[in-house]
Design brief:
Number of strands: 4
Length: 156
């Protein structure tokens, strides 16, 4: 009678049952990992857009307070700062201090929020010495509206 070795039989059974991961399991794992990484990348993109919009809003506030300080330094001529909506510093006439301040301020706005040649970064000041300062810009790069504005009121 032939006697079978139980260890050999057990080894043969294990080799047939489980010997590592199959190619399908690896592909499913890679697919799940890639979907997770795409989600993280989308989240990062949204955070960057939100940060850009916040930065532009902060710069608009700082620019508006800057022109208020210029008007306070030249308070005797506060009415000279009144201007309709302007989008180009070339459209601001005059060579007095108020006109120079307005041109420098608008160029500073375009340098921080927009670009020097754009037509969407604009400013308006009305009602001085009880001034209403409005800054307009295009926020679409940050995922916002294309016609965003910020208004500030100040008494000179």
């Amino acid at each position: 009678m032939m006697h079978m070795n139980p260890i050999r039989n057990e080894g043969r059974q294990l080799r047939g049952r489980a010997r590592g991961m199959s190619l399908i399991e690896v592909l499913v794992s890679v697919l799940i990992l890639s979907l997770g990484l795409l989600g993280i990348a989308a989240l990062q993109s949204m955070a960057l857009r939100g940060g850009q919009g916040s930065l532009e809003s902060s710069q608009a506030v700082m620019a508006a307070t800057s022109i208020v300080e210029n008007m306070r330094a030249n308070s005797a001529n506060a009415g000279s700062y009144n201007t309709a909506k302007v989008c180009s510093s070339a459209s601001i006439p005059g060579s007095d201090l108020a006109s120079n301040n307005l041109r420098d301020w608008l160029n500073g706005l375009k340098g921080s929020i927009g670009t020097l040649g754009d037509t969407t970064t604009c400013a308006q000041i009305t009602g001085c010495p009880n001034c209403a300062i409005t800054v307009f810009w295009d926020d679409s790069r940050a995922g916002g509206a294309s016609n965003r504005s910020l208004a500030l009121e100040a008494t000179i």
